[in-house]
Amino acid sequence: MTAHVDVLVDPHDDVATTRAIHRLATEQSRVLAVSVAPDERTVPAVVWAILRALGKRTDKLPDKTQPDWHQAKSWLRAHLINELIVLRAQHLKPAFQQALTDLAEQTSSRMTLVYSGPGSTHRQATITLDQLLERPRTTPEPEPRSSPWPRIPRSHPWRLRYDCAQMLNRDAFRRVDSLLFATYNTLDRWLGTHRRHAPEELWRAVSVMRIAHDPNQRHLRHCATTVLLQSRGITTLAPTRRPFTPGTPTAAEIDDALAHTNGPHAGYALTEKLTGLPDALLGLILGDQVTDISIIGCAVAERARPVLRILYTGNSPVLRKPPEPP
Protein backbone atom coordinates (compact mmCIF):
# COMPACT_ATOMS: atom_id res chain seq x y z
CA MET A 1 0.00 0.00 0.00
CA THR A 2 1.37 3.44 -0.96
CA ALA A 3 1.28 6.12 1.70
CA HIS A 4 -1.08 9.03 1.11
CA VAL A 5 0.99 12.23 0.84
CA ASP A 6 -0.59 15.70 0.82
CA VAL A 7 1.16 18.95 -0.07
CA LEU A 8 0.41 22.23 1.71
CA VAL A 9 1.92 25.45 0.31
CA ASP A 10 2.55 28.41 2.60
CA PRO A 11 4.13 31.04 0.29
CA HIS A 12 4.32 33.72 2.99
CA ASP A 13 5.91 31.42 5.58
CA ASP A 14 3.24 32.59 7.99
CA VAL A 15 4.08 31.94 11.65
CA ALA A 16 0.35 31.43 12.27
CA THR A 17 0.47 28.35 10.04
CA THR A 18 3.29 26.82 12.06
CA ARG A 19 1.55 27.60 15.35
CA ALA A 20 -1.74 26.08 14.15
CA ILE A 21 0.00 22.86 13.09
CA HIS A 22 1.90 22.55 16.37
CA ARG A 23 -1.33 23.19 18.27
CA LEU A 24 -2.99 20.41 16.27
CA ALA A 25 -0.15 18.01 17.16
CA THR A 26 -0.49 18.95 20.82
CA GLU A 27 -4.23 18.26 20.84
CA GLN A 28 -4.05 15.07 18.74
CA SER A 29 -1.73 12.47 20.28
CA ARG A 30 -1.54 10.49 17.02
CA VAL A 31 -0.35 13.52 14.99
CA LEU A 32 3.35 14.42 14.92
CA ALA A 33 4.65 17.77 13.62
CA VAL A 34 8.30 17.65 12.52
CA SER A 35 10.29 20.79 11.68
CA VAL A 36 13.19 20.44 9.22
CA ALA A 37 15.99 23.00 9.51
CA PRO A 38 18.03 24.22 6.52
CA ASP A 39 21.22 22.56 7.79
CA GLU A 40 19.66 19.14 8.33
CA ARG A 41 21.09 17.61 5.17
CA THR A 42 22.06 14.15 6.46
CA VAL A 43 20.04 11.07 7.36
CA PRO A 44 20.86 11.25 11.11
CA ALA A 45 19.83 14.93 11.17
CA VAL A 46 16.46 14.26 9.54
CA VAL A 47 15.84 11.23 11.73
CA TRP A 48 16.79 13.25 14.78
CA ALA A 49 14.20 15.87 13.81
CA ILE A 50 11.58 13.12 14.11
CA LEU A 51 12.94 11.79 17.40
CA ARG A 52 13.17 15.31 18.82
CA ALA A 53 9.51 15.89 17.97
CA LEU A 54 8.72 12.67 19.94
CA GLY A 55 10.44 14.10 23.01
CA LYS A 56 13.84 12.40 22.67
CA ARG A 57 16.90 14.27 23.89
CA THR A 58 20.49 14.32 22.64
CA ASP A 59 21.84 13.70 26.15
CA LYS A 60 19.95 10.35 26.11
CA LEU A 61 21.54 9.22 22.84
CA PRO A 62 24.05 6.37 23.39
CA ASP A 63 27.68 7.33 22.82
CA LYS A 64 29.14 6.92 19.33
CA THR A 65 25.77 6.12 17.76
CA GLN A 66 23.71 7.93 15.16
CA PRO A 67 19.92 7.53 14.83
CA ASP A 68 18.69 5.79 11.69
CA TRP A 69 15.39 5.23 9.87
CA HIS A 70 14.76 1.96 11.72
CA GLN A 71 14.93 3.78 15.05
CA ALA A 72 12.50 6.42 13.80
CA LYS A 73 10.10 3.74 12.57
CA SER A 74 10.23 1.85 15.87
CA TRP A 75 9.47 4.90 17.99
CA LEU A 76 6.72 6.16 15.65
CA ARG A 77 5.01 2.80 16.06
CA ALA A 78 5.62 2.81 19.81
CA HIS A 79 3.97 6.23 20.15
CA LEU A 80 1.09 5.10 17.87
CA ILE A 81 1.64 7.97 15.42
CA ASN A 82 -0.62 7.70 12.36
CA GLU A 83 -0.18 11.16 10.84
CA LEU A 84 3.10 12.91 10.06
CA ILE A 85 3.27 16.63 9.19
CA VAL A 86 6.67 17.82 7.93
CA LEU A 87 7.16 21.57 8.22
CA ARG A 88 9.59 23.38 5.84
CA ALA A 89 9.81 20.38 3.56
CA GLN A 90 11.66 22.54 1.00
CA HIS A 91 14.85 21.82 2.95
CA LEU A 92 14.60 18.09 2.27
CA LYS A 93 16.65 16.38 -0.41
CA PRO A 94 14.52 14.42 -2.91
CA ALA A 95 15.94 11.17 -1.54
CA PHE A 96 14.83 12.12 1.98
CA GLN A 97 11.33 12.94 0.76
CA GLN A 98 11.11 9.43 -0.65
CA ALA A 99 12.53 7.97 2.55
CA LEU A 100 9.90 9.83 4.58
CA THR A 101 7.21 8.54 2.23
CA ASP A 102 8.47 5.00 2.77
CA LEU A 103 8.54 5.61 6.52
CA ALA A 104 4.91 6.79 6.46
CA GLU A 105 3.94 3.70 4.48
CA GLN A 106 5.74 1.35 6.90
CA THR A 107 4.01 2.95 9.89
CA SER A 108 0.59 3.22 8.18
CA SER A 109 0.71 7.00 8.58
CA ARG A 110 -0.74 9.78 6.50
CA MET A 111 1.86 12.44 5.61
CA THR A 112 1.60 16.12 4.77
CA LEU A 113 4.59 18.04 3.39
CA VAL A 114 4.42 21.77 4.17
CA TYR A 115 6.43 23.96 1.78
CA SER A 116 7.03 27.51 3.04
CA GLY A 117 8.40 30.74 1.60
CA PRO A 118 8.35 32.43 -1.83
CA GLY A 119 10.27 29.57 -3.43
CA SER A 120 7.39 27.18 -2.75
CA THR A 121 4.91 28.78 -5.16
CA HIS A 122 5.76 26.33 -7.93
CA ARG A 123 4.54 23.44 -5.74
CA GLN A 124 1.14 21.97 -6.51
CA ALA A 125 -0.93 22.10 -3.33
CA THR A 126 -3.36 19.27 -2.62
CA ILE A 127 -4.71 20.57 0.68
CA THR A 128 -5.28 23.87 2.47
CA LEU A 129 -4.49 24.67 6.07
CA ASP A 130 -8.18 24.70 7.02
CA GLN A 131 -8.69 21.30 5.38
CA LEU A 132 -5.68 19.91 7.25
CA LEU A 133 -6.88 21.22 10.61
CA GLU A 134 -10.49 20.12 10.13
CA ARG A 135 -9.74 16.70 8.69
CA PRO A 136 -11.71 14.00 10.56
CA ARG A 137 -9.45 12.01 12.82
CA THR A 138 -10.08 8.95 14.91
CA THR A 139 -8.04 7.71 17.85
CA PRO A 140 -8.46 3.93 17.82
CA GLU A 141 -7.30 2.06 20.85
CA PRO A 142 -3.97 0.25 20.43
CA GLU A 143 -4.32 -3.42 19.68
CA PRO A 144 -3.48 -5.24 22.93
CA ARG A 145 -0.66 -7.74 22.87
CA SER A 146 -1.94 -9.49 25.97
CA SER A 147 -5.46 -10.73 26.57
CA PRO A 148 -6.98 -11.18 30.06
CA TRP A 149 -5.42 -13.99 32.05
CA PRO A 150 -7.36 -17.26 32.19
CA ARG A 151 -8.90 -18.24 35.47
CA ILE A 152 -6.65 -20.82 37.07
CA PRO A 153 -7.28 -23.26 39.93
CA ARG A 154 -5.96 -22.31 43.37
CA SER A 155 -4.00 -25.54 43.61
CA HIS A 156 -0.98 -26.36 45.72
CA PRO A 157 2.18 -24.87 44.12
CA TRP A 158 3.59 -28.30 43.24
CA ARG A 159 0.29 -29.42 41.67
CA LEU A 160 -0.73 -26.21 39.92
CA ARG A 161 0.93 -26.90 36.56
CA TYR A 162 -0.66 -30.36 36.32
CA ASP A 163 -4.13 -29.02 37.15
CA CYS A 164 -3.77 -26.21 34.62
CA ALA A 165 -2.79 -28.73 31.94
CA GLN A 166 -5.94 -30.71 32.69
CA MET A 167 -8.39 -27.80 32.95
CA LEU A 168 -7.23 -25.17 30.44
CA ASN A 169 -7.23 -25.18 26.66
CA ARG A 170 -3.95 -25.38 24.79
CA ASP A 171 -3.43 -21.62 24.26
CA ALA A 172 -4.31 -20.73 27.86
CA PHE A 173 -2.01 -23.42 29.22
CA ARG A 174 0.82 -22.22 26.99
CA ARG A 175 0.51 -18.74 28.52
CA VAL A 176 0.37 -20.15 32.03
CA ASP A 177 3.38 -22.38 31.44
CA SER A 178 5.34 -19.51 29.89
CA LEU A 179 4.80 -17.24 32.90
CA LEU A 180 5.61 -20.02 35.37
CA PHE A 181 8.90 -20.65 33.58
CA ALA A 182 9.71 -16.94 33.21
CA THR A 183 9.14 -16.25 36.91
CA TYR A 184 11.04 -19.36 38.00
CA ASN A 185 13.91 -18.63 35.59
CA THR A 186 14.27 -14.95 36.53
CA LEU A 187 14.49 -15.70 40.26
CA ASP A 188 16.75 -18.69 39.60
CA ARG A 189 19.14 -16.45 37.66
CA TRP A 190 19.15 -13.97 40.56
CA LEU A 191 19.98 -16.74 43.04
CA GLY A 192 22.77 -17.90 40.74
CA THR A 193 24.42 -14.48 40.84
CA HIS A 194 23.75 -13.87 44.56
CA ARG A 195 24.99 -17.03 46.23
CA ARG A 196 25.85 -15.12 49.41
CA HIS A 197 22.70 -13.07 49.74
CA ALA A 198 21.30 -11.61 52.93
CA PRO A 199 17.80 -12.77 54.01
CA GLU A 200 16.47 -9.27 53.35
CA GLU A 201 17.81 -9.34 49.78
CA LEU A 202 16.15 -12.70 49.10
CA TRP A 203 12.86 -11.52 50.58
CA ARG A 204 12.90 -8.45 48.36
CA ALA A 205 13.70 -10.46 45.21
CA VAL A 206 10.96 -13.00 45.97
CA SER A 207 8.36 -10.36 46.81
CA VAL A 208 9.12 -8.56 43.54
CA MET A 209 8.59 -11.74 41.53
CA ARG A 210 5.27 -12.39 43.28
CA ILE A 211 3.52 -9.14 42.37
CA ALA A 212 1.01 -8.80 39.54
CA HIS A 213 -1.96 -6.62 38.66
CA ASP A 214 -4.08 -9.72 37.95
CA PRO A 215 -4.96 -12.19 40.79
CA ASN A 216 -4.55 -15.22 38.50
CA GLN A 217 -1.12 -14.04 37.41
CA ARG A 218 -0.25 -13.26 41.03
CA HIS A 219 -1.07 -16.83 42.09
CA LEU A 220 1.04 -18.23 39.25
CA ARG A 221 4.02 -16.13 40.32
CA HIS A 222 3.58 -17.16 43.96
CA CYS A 223 3.55 -20.84 42.99
CA ALA A 224 6.58 -20.55 40.71
CA THR A 225 8.70 -18.86 43.39
CA THR A 226 7.51 -21.31 46.08
CA VAL A 227 8.50 -24.33 43.97
CA LEU A 228 11.93 -22.84 43.28
CA LEU A 229 12.61 -22.00 46.92
CA GLN A 230 11.44 -25.38 48.20
CA SER A 231 13.43 -27.23 45.55
CA ARG A 232 16.53 -25.41 46.81
CA GLY A 233 15.72 -26.15 50.44
CA ILE A 234 14.88 -22.53 51.28
CA THR A 235 11.88 -22.62 53.59
CA THR A 236 12.23 -19.44 55.65
CA LEU A 237 12.21 -15.87 54.45
CA ALA A 238 11.93 -12.62 56.37
CA PRO A 239 8.26 -12.35 57.30
CA THR A 240 8.82 -9.18 59.30
CA ARG A 241 9.69 -7.29 56.16
CA ARG A 242 6.87 -5.60 54.27
CA PRO A 243 6.20 -7.15 50.85
CA PHE A 244 7.28 -5.20 47.81
CA THR A 245 4.80 -2.70 46.39
CA PRO A 246 5.46 -0.98 43.05
CA GLY A 247 5.99 2.75 42.97
CA THR A 248 4.36 5.39 40.78
CA PRO A 249 6.83 7.24 38.57
CA THR A 250 6.28 10.99 38.46
CA ALA A 251 5.55 12.85 35.23
CA ALA A 252 9.17 14.06 35.17
CA GLU A 253 10.48 10.49 35.61
CA ILE A 254 8.26 9.25 32.77
CA ASP A 255 9.52 12.08 30.58
CA ASP A 256 13.08 11.09 31.45
CA ALA A 257 12.44 7.47 30.40
CA LEU A 258 10.72 8.50 27.18
CA ALA A 259 13.62 10.82 26.33
CA HIS A 260 15.92 7.85 25.69
CA THR A 261 16.47 6.88 22.07
CA ASN A 262 17.59 3.36 23.03
CA GLY A 263 14.69 1.04 23.96
CA PRO A 264 16.52 -1.07 26.61
CA HIS A 265 17.81 2.14 28.21
CA ALA A 266 14.30 3.60 28.30
CA GLY A 267 12.96 0.35 29.78
CA TYR A 268 15.65 0.36 32.47
CA ALA A 269 14.98 3.98 33.45
CA LEU A 270 11.23 3.35 33.69
CA THR A 271 11.50 0.04 35.58
CA GLU A 272 14.06 1.44 38.00
CA LYS A 273 11.62 4.19 39.01
CA LEU A 274 8.68 1.77 39.03
CA THR A 275 10.32 -0.89 41.20
CA GLY A 276 13.40 0.64 42.83
CA LEU A 277 15.26 -2.60 42.05
CA PRO A 278 19.07 -2.76 41.98
CA ASP A 279 20.93 -3.29 38.73
CA ALA A 280 21.61 -6.95 39.58
CA LEU A 281 17.92 -7.79 39.33
CA LEU A 282 16.93 -5.28 36.65
CA GLY A 283 19.48 -6.81 34.30
CA LEU A 284 17.86 -10.24 34.64
CA ILE A 285 14.35 -9.21 33.58
CA LEU A 286 13.48 -11.03 30.38
CA GLY A 287 11.18 -10.00 27.56
CA ASP A 288 8.61 -12.54 28.68
CA GLN A 289 8.16 -10.45 31.84
CA VAL A 290 6.97 -7.48 29.73
CA THR A 291 3.43 -7.07 28.42
CA ASP A 292 1.75 -4.12 26.74
CA ILE A 293 0.58 -2.80 30.13
CA SER A 294 3.09 -4.04 32.73
CA ILE A 295 6.66 -4.97 33.61
CA ILE A 296 7.12 -7.95 35.99
CA GLY A 297 3.50 -7.55 36.99
CA CYS A 298 3.69 -3.83 37.81
CA ALA A 299 1.06 -1.86 35.89
CA VAL A 300 2.53 1.00 33.84
CA ALA A 301 0.81 4.36 33.32
CA GLU A 302 -0.71 4.92 29.87
CA ARG A 303 1.68 7.74 28.99
CA ALA A 304 4.72 5.53 29.63
CA ARG A 305 3.54 2.60 27.54
CA PRO A 306 5.47 3.55 24.37
CA VAL A 307 8.47 2.19 26.29
CA LEU A 308 6.73 -1.17 26.70
CA ARG A 309 5.76 -1.27 23.01
CA ILE A 310 9.35 -0.80 21.86
CA LEU A 311 10.92 -3.44 24.11
CA TYR A 312 11.73 -6.74 22.47
CA THR A 313 9.59 -9.54 23.88
CA GLY A 314 11.59 -12.73 23.95
CA ASN A 315 13.52 -15.01 26.26
CA SER A 316 16.46 -12.64 26.63
CA PRO A 317 17.26 -9.63 28.86
CA VAL A 318 15.50 -6.48 27.63
CA LEU A 319 16.69 -3.83 30.10
CA ARG A 320 20.10 -2.23 29.94
CA LYS A 321 21.51 0.40 32.28
CA PRO A 322 22.10 3.69 30.44
CA PRO A 323 25.70 4.95 30.46
CA GLU A 324 26.50 7.70 32.89
CA PRO A 325 26.36 11.16 31.30
CA PRO A 326 29.80 12.67 30.66
Tally of alpha and pi helices = 13
Domains (count): 2
What is the H-and-E element order? EHEHHEHEHHHHHHHHEEH
Main sheet record: 4 strands, parallel
Q: Total number of β-strand segments? A: 6
Mean pLDDT: 85
Gyration radius over CA: 24 Å
Helix content: 40-55%
Describe this structure in words.
- This protein is an alpha/beta fold.
- It folds into two domains: 5-134, 3-Layer(aba) Sandwich (Rossmann fold); 160-310, no CATH class.
- 44% of the residues lie in helices and 8% in strands.
- The chain has helices at residues 15-27, 43-53, 69-78, 94-106, 129-134, 160-167, 170-193, 199-209, 215-231, 251-258, 263-275, 279-282, 305-310; strands spanning 5-10, 31-35, 83-87, 110-116, 294-295, 298-299.
- The strands form two sheets. Strands 1-4-3-2 form a four-stranded parallel β-sheet, with helices on both faces. Strands 5-6 form a two-stranded antiparallel ribbon.
- Strand 3 (83-87), helix 4 and strand 4 form a beta-alpha-beta unit.
- Helix 7 packs across helix 9 (215-231).
